[in-house]
Inverse folding.
DNA sequence: TTTTACTTGACACTTAGTATCATTTTTAAT
DNA sequence: ATTAAAAATGATACTAAGTGTCAAGTAAAA
């Protein structure tokens, strides 16, 4: 039994799909900044107005999967168990799980990356989006530390250090065309971090 | 002997000063997003065209000191000496020096922060600007490690962890109205980091 | 079938930023 | 002091993102 929405719902889903396909095609060939919403709407054979009913901005097409990914990451964080009761180890488990997930959607990610680096504006936005992941880590550490004002700050500091590391590993992975093992690089980088800064 | 520029130069400097004063006044009272370049130009009694000859964008007024600050930081990084030959310690010295500098311009910074948080757009841009500091740290670590491909990556990871920490400390300082000791907070946070992640 | 709810296209508007051109102002040379 | 070159300004027109509104069309429910 296949669940078909109403005709209206199916039409909407289809329009959205076409928007995404055509927009991505244009972004990849011309670069994000050289594509106007007018162009996208024309390719999708609808009006410019309609585009803004489906996406709140031009870049929203590019970042359409962001929220879902953050949700997945949060789920991995909260369900992560460590063998040794150490918080950092649990975060590490979640991060490596997420790395595995990212490897499984590398085609999608590679395409997205190509679009992002085509525009200084998108690069900035991308950095901004990363904050959601960092905040998720911070929240998780805070919870596991048991709450309290002092721990909130402590959690933020640790999370920013951890995610700074993660971001760098990911950038490196993208730069190399997602060919290397993200899990292995991630593990190595986290080892470097956990070893401390006595150098 | 006072060095007076030409009449032209003095006029230009004055127009720029007026632009900054009026723009900042408007940003502080109405919030960045509610101020148009038209408004600023009107307050400065010049045309909108002229504004864009002095600043390449509206936000450039807010971030007008960014480059100079990065330059100062780089200088502090390259001249930092540690007692024990450890790279992390030299970076720490530079960071604490910079914290001292920031304490000395806290009024300017507090004003800037108030404007930045008035606009989601500026908050994003601010995060972007921070990358310049992170890259400066990365460069410095890389140089001190003696170059090489492997060290480039290593330097990036360490720099992102360090700067993630720094950013969090600064945010906390700003949130508290720049009243606490940035140097002390910075030292504590760096200690937390250097202790490693074995928890 | 008819009423109601939703979707769309057309249009007007605001604002940042770019580009051009004529006018004014400053500077340098005679 | 006069004039020619260089630079700053204002006016104007343009592109493009994003917002808001309204009337017409289409699907859903009665």
């Amino acid at each position: 039994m296949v669940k078909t929405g109403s005709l209206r719902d199916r039409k909407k889903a289809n329009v959205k799909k076409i928007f995404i396909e055509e927009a991505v095609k244009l972004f990849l060939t011309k670069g994000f900044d050289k594509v106007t919403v007018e162009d996208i709407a024309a390719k999708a054979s609808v009006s410019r107005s309609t585009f803004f009913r489906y996406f709140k901005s031009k870049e929203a097409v590019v970042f359409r999967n962001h929220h879902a990914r953050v949700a997945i990451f949060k789920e991995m964080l909260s369900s992560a168990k460590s063998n040794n009761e150490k918080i950092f180890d649990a975060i590490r488990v979640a991060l490596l799980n997420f790395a595995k997930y990212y490897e499984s959607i590398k085609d999608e990610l590679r395409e997205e990356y190509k679009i992002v680096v085509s525009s200084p504006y998108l690069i900035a936005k991308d950095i901004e989006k990363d904050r959601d992941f960092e905040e998720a880590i911070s929240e998780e550490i805070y919870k596991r530390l048991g709450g309290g004002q002092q721990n909130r700050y402590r959690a933020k500091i640790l999370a920013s250090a951890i995610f700074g590391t993660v971001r760098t590993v990911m950038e490196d992975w993208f730069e190399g065309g997602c060919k290397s093992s993200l899990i292995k690089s991630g593990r190595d980088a986290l080892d470097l971090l956990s070893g401390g800064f006595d150098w």
Remarks:
- Chain B touches chain A through 36 residues (CB under 8 Å).
- Residues 10 and 94 of chain B are 36 Å apart (CA to CA).
- Residues 149-175 of chain B form the longest helix (27 residues).
